[in-house]
Amino acid sequence: MRLVDSHCHLDRSEYGADREQVISRAKAAGLQRAVLIGLWRAPGDFGDALALRDSDPGFFAATIGIHPHESADAPEGDFEYVERLASDPRIVGIGETGLDYHYDHSPRDVQQVAFRRHIGWSRSSQKPVVVHVREAHDDCARILREETAAPGGIIHCFTGGPQEARTYLELGFFISFSGVVTFKNAAPVREAARQVPLDRILIETDSPFLAPVPHRGKRNEPGYVGAVAETLAALRGEASEAVAEATAANALRAFRLSPTSP
Ligand SMILES: [Zn+2]
Ligand SMILES: [Zn+2]
Asked: Considering every ligand atom, which ligand is closest to the CA of 103?
């Protein structure tokens, strides 16, 4: 079974002790590639996603961005760093960026400005934008619509329902499902998962967060992404292998990755 984890945070300290084993387990589980989301942590510090990518460029790919939670904290110089790195050939996507009105860690107007800037760098670099959106679908869709020439991207860890999914599909986006789709209480997400065309679906772990059933509550890892594929397959009445293969191919297409080479 060929799998791609389209969104993980494997450079975080949760994997300080056993990162190599986590990567080995992912490969043993059939992962062909994993996309590392490179995020701002502190002034001048974007973590180790790019270094981890460079350690195994045939397996990993990396993005760069400033999370909406941190959009008010990151200094201007670090926004300019994202702009510079956007054109680096090692970077395959811009973000995650977007709007999170659930936590409101940064003021909404500041999140919106940062989101638009990331979309602009996505446009100038012709790389997909990785969108984090929580309880902000109306503003998110409006901004994506206003930024008309954006080259599309991925709605990551989709938490909306069928109507929101349709909106993003019309805007040309891929919908990425995470472990949330395995949670029985996530009825709207599960209904959306039945309806999105197979050629527009990505799967992800968002490791270390949101471990899918049966690992729920534990530290997540990319090797668990198969559980997301299996749940999607069950919801859609399709074979797990077909969902794994299609979502892997979609991820490679979304990030313009070659299957086996850097
Ligand atoms: Zn996110
Ligand atoms: Zn994330």
From this structure: 1
- Residues 59-72: what's their mean pLDDT? 98
3-state secondary structure of 86: helix
Residue 89 contacts residue 120 (beta carbons within 8 Å):
no
CA 147 to ligand 2 centroid distance, Å: 22
CA of 155 to the centre of ligand 1 (A): 9
**CB-based contact 40:74 (threshold 8 Å):** yes
Which residues share a beta bridge with 39? 65
Residue position matching structure tokens 């619509």: 145
Ligand 2 centroid distance, CA of 139 (Å): 20
Tens of pLDDT, residues 49-59: 999 999 999 99
Bridge partners (DSSP) listed for residue 8 = 36
In the reported structure, the alpha carbon of residue 241 is separated from the centroid of ligand 2 by a whole-number distance in angstroms of 25
